[in-house]
Amino acid sequence: MKRSILAAAVAAVALVSLPFAGGAQATSPVNFGVAAGAALPMSDLSDFVNTGWNVTGMVGFHPTMIPLGVRVDVAYNSFAIKDAIGINGNINFTNVSGNLIWSIPTSGPSPYLIGGAGWYHLATDAPGLEGDSDNRFGFALGGGIKLPLSGFDTFLEARYNQISGSGGSPSLKFVPITFGIMF
Fold it and tell me: Do 131 and 160 contact (CB within 8 A), yes or no?
């Protein structure tokens, strides 16, 4: 009797574990990806720019069955200056950041948290302001959901970015909401 209960318990654990093990083996620990979407200005930045756009390239290392991974992102965000300001042009942010990702390893859709810090290059493309640029430190915190497909993963992500103020200027804040693919 005890052997049959033990055998049934071992079989149940094996059956429940198969989807997790199968999903973990299909995913490589090193991934490359691209993402794009909208960039929403916040706080002081929203006073003088419209909603913009974002494009991001990334490389990540996420060991199988360990919830913590690392990802390096290179992103470009562009915002059109509002017409009410009287200046035509764009404000652009290029950044390189190192991030930690905490996720729940599953074979299906899985939520994750992401946070990191990096270098942000601010540049303006407007008459009279060409070449006006600055380098600043910034950080980003957010989350997303990973949707694994056959051979690659897709994800939907939102991250709050804050760029430090410089020389008495206010900090700049925006939230890119992106859809991406990881290979």
Answer: no
